[in-house]
Amino acid sequence: MIGFLRGRIAAKHPPLLVMDVGGVGYELEAPMSTFYGLAAVGAETTLHTHLVVREDAHILYGFGSERERALFRELIKVSNVGPRIALAILSGVSVDDFHRCVERDDVASLVRIPGIGRKTAERLVIEMRDRLKALAGPVLTGDGAGGAPVVMLAAQAEAYGALIALGYKPAEVTRLLKAIDPSVTSTEEMIRHALRSAASA
C-alpha cells in the first residue's frame, strides 16, 4: 500500500493530477477539496494516498489531508458507495460539513451532490454516524494556483471537464460557469464557485 507521495506537481487536470516523485510520474484522482489547497504546477507537495486495486486497473487516489483520506476510506465501506461517489461527496462538501450533515440528519444537503440519491443519502447518515470518530487528523494546506486572463479559456475547459466528471449535466455546467464572475480565472476557483452555486440552487 502506498501511504503518501511527496514530490513535484507535474500536471493538474481536475479531477486528475500527476506528481513527479523521483522522476516517476504518478497519476492520481483527487477530490476538489484537495485541488483547492494545491500549489501551482511545479511546486513541491505531499499527498496522502489510497490505492484501489481492481481486475482491470490499479487506481491511486490523492488527498490533501489525513482527514479527507479517512473519510474517503469510511465512505467506500458504505453499501453502494464506491470511490467515484466518495470523491463526489468530498468535492461537494468539506469533511466538517459532512460531519454536520450526519449529526443533523441533513439528507437534503447530501442529495444536492451529483450521484447521491435520497436513499443513498439516508444510508450515509445512518451508517456514518458511528464512524465519525475515525475521521481525525491534521489538515495540510497550501497556496491555490492563480491564473491570468490569457488562460481563461483553458481554465474554463478544465473546469467544464471536471464538473462533467463529477456528474453534472452539460447544460447545467454551462449555466454554472457562465454565472461566475469574470475576475475568477483559475480552474480550481471556477469549480469552487460552480459547486457553491449548485449547492445553493
Task: Looking at this protein, list some descriptive labels.
201 residues; alpha+beta; OB fold (Dihydrolipoamide Acetyltransferase, E2P); DNA polymerase, domain 1; Helicase, Ruva Protein, domain 3; 5-stranded antiparallel beta sheet; 9 helices; 44% helix
Could you characterize what this model shows?
- With 201 residues, the protein is of the alpha+beta class.
- The chain has three domains: 60 residues, Nucleic acid-binding proteins (OB fold (Dihydrolipoamide Acetyltransferase, E2P)), CATH 2.40.50.140; 69 residues, DNA polymerase, domain 1 (Orthogonal Bundle); 52 residues, Helicase, Ruva Protein, domain 3 (Orthogonal Bundle), CATH 1.10.8.10.
- Helices cover 44% and strands 19% of the residues.
- The chain contains nine helices and five strands.
- It has a five-stranded antiparallel β-sheet with strand order 3-2-1-4-5.
- The longest helix is centred in the last third of the chain and has 14 residues.
- The chain is globular and about 45 Å long.
- The N and C termini lie far apart (40 Å).
Contiguous uncertain segments of 5+ residues: 136-152
DSSP summary: helix tally: 9
* Backbone CA Rg: 16 Å
Q: For this structure, what is the CATH homologous superfamily of the largest domain?
A: 5' to 3' exonuclease, C-terminal subdomain
CATH class of the largest domain: Mainly Alpha
Order of helices and strands: EEEHEEHHHHHHHH
Shape: globular
Give me the count of strands.
5
Alpha-carbon distance between the termini? 40 Å
Strand content: 15-25%
Helical content, roughly?
A: 40-55%
Largest sheet: number of strands, sense, barrel closure: 5 strands, antiparallel
The name of the CATH architecture of the largest domain is: Orthogonal Bundle
At CATH level 3, the topology of the largest domain is DNA polymerase, domain 1
The total tally of domains equals 3
- The helix/strand class is alpha+beta
Q: For the residues shown, what is the average pLDDT?
A: 84
Strand order of the largest sheet: 3-2-1-4-5
